[in-house]
From TrEMBL:
Biased composition (Basic and acidic residues): 14-28
Classification lineage: Bacteria, Bacillati, Actinomycetota, Actinomycetes, Micrococcales
PANTHER family noted in UniProt: PROTEIN ABCI7, CHLOROPLASTIC
This protein's name: Fe-S cluster assembly protein SufD
A Pfam family matched in the record: SUFBD_core
Length: 445
């Protein structure tokens, strides 16, 4: 649930302790030192990871009892790395809403994506600006499909088994894309449907790919992303659906040696949108940035569940998600899982989520999770804060002659601009900034 922490919209550089940061629930461990080995074992940790009490003598320790939310029939996995992965729908039990991964999601509003056959027509896909990038439509027998991503939940598995054709976008080896690759995904039917997209940046290539979702849909979608060795890839996923749209999307990326991968989510439209982006390091020296912006209106449910999987040594990740909420029953969910496996020595990671509640009646759930299996890391931490306007900041603006309503808009605009500016596509940044202004106007802010 949201608290009443006041949020200031400053966008200071990484590492600075802002007012928001001081109010946030933070944890940083293993920070580098100028005088000692930066991979020295951390207090309370061994090379095997965190040293926790109990478990060997068969006696349950206080606070370590197995549990599930609402007495769900399935006990959550002890580790995020143990999550079930399968292409077989039968491997995923029927959802009840009590499962850890689904407890925030209103299943009744999924319109059958988790229960019914996905037989509707998939949204139309139109690709522009490809230039020297290859775009194909292939059937499901293509060997490239499913090679880099395996479904992790029932809806993703249903989508895998239901799609008939896929869009494959390939940036050839050592190719710099001529411009932004714009992938328009346009929904025209509310019938439950499945869709599959594969984006492959081959070794030492460079590209920006924008997935632009509009229209009306009930869609279960899988997006596979492969970032080859030494490649630089930015994927932007924009959700500006019609008000009745339901969209559940798994966007899994595998990141190669010395690669650079940026993933940006902007969720504005739709009735219910649930995204599960993940970044999995497969070789050393890679860097990942994951950004997200979401703005929920009355009755809207916007959910982001991300994973950063540090499975190999000497990789770096940064996660920054920001949300705004207004109106009765506006609900946002952010769950950020960062997993540092035993082999991932030298990891450097930090994630943060900030939520700004603009009116009464809105709710934001924010759950940062950091799981560490080795103490030999450069640094790891997370921060989460949810609150209302910073009265002192508003007073500062109003004292300089800015009317209160305009001052509030400036605060929100400044709060969200950090994420929009990460897109680096001027026309799209301008469009999304205008969309944020329309959201503010609709809320009479």
């Amino acid at each position: 649930m949201a608290d009443t922490t006041q949020i200031s919209p400053d966008t200071t550089s990484e590492g600075e302790r802002t007012d928001l940061g001081r109010a946030a629930d933070k944890a940083r461990i293993g920070a580098p030192s100028d005088t000692v080995d930066t991979r020295a074992v951390i207090d309370g940790f061994t090379e095997e990871g965190e040293s926790l009490p109990g478990g060997d003598d068969g006696v349950e320790q206080l606070g370590f009892k197995k549990h599930s939310h609402g007495n769900a029939p399935v006990v959550p996995e002890a580790s995020r790395g143990e999550r079930r992965r399968s292409f077989d729908l039968a491997d995923f039990p029927t959802l009840t809403g009590l499962e850890e991964d689904w407890r925030f999601t209103p299943l009744k509003r999924l319109r059958g994506l988790h229960t019914d056959p996905l037989t509707g027509a998939a949204p139309a896909v139109s690709v522009t600006g490809a230039g020297n990038v290859t775009v194909e439509t292939v059937d499901r027998s293509d060997a490239r499909l499913g090679a880099s991503a395996t479904p992790e939940d029932r809806v993703a598995a249903a989508a895998w088994n239901a799609f008939t054709e896929a869009t494959v976008i390939t940036v050839p080896r050592e190719t710099v894309a001529d411009g932004e690759v714009m992938v328009a995904v346009t929904g025209t039917s509310p019938a439950a449907a499945a869709q599959h997209i594969l984006i492959h940046a081959e070794a030492f290539s460079k590209a920006v790919v924008v997935l632009d979702h509009t229209g009306s849909v009930t869609l279960a979608q899988n997006v596979e992303i492969v970032v080859g060795d030494g490649a630089e890839l930015t994927v932007v996923s924009v959700q500006e659906w019609d008000d009745d749209a339901v969209h559940v999307s798994s966007q899994q990326a595998k990141v190669g040696r010395d690669a650079r991968y940026k993933h940006v989510v902007v969720s504005l439209g739709g009735d219910l949108v649930r995204l599960t982006p993940s970044s999995i390091f497969t070789a050393t020296g890679a860097e990942v940035e994951m950004y997200g912006l979401y703005f929920a209106d009355a009755g809207q449910h916007l959910e982001q569940r991300l994973l950063v999987d540090h499975a190999v040594p000497n990789c770096k990740s940064r996660v920054t998600y920001k949300g705004a909420l207004q109106g009765q029953d506006a609900h946002t969910v952010w769950v950020g899982d960062v997993l540092i496996r035993k082999a991932a020595e030298g990891t450097d990671t930090y994630e943060t989520n900030r939520n700004l509640i603009l009116t009464d009646g809105a709710r934001s759930d924010s759950v940062p999770n950091l799981e560490i299996e080795t103490g030999l890391i450069e640094g790891a931490g997370h921060a989460s804060a949810t609150g209302r306007f910073d009265d002192e900041h508003l007073f500062y603006l109003m004292a300089r002659g800015i009317p209160e309503k305009a001052a509030r808009r400036l605060v929100v605009r400044g709060f969200l601009t950090e994420v929009i500016q990460q897109i680096k596509v001027p026309a799209l940044e301008e469009r999304l900034s205008e969309s944020v202004e329309r959201e503010l106007a609709a809320g009479n802010l």
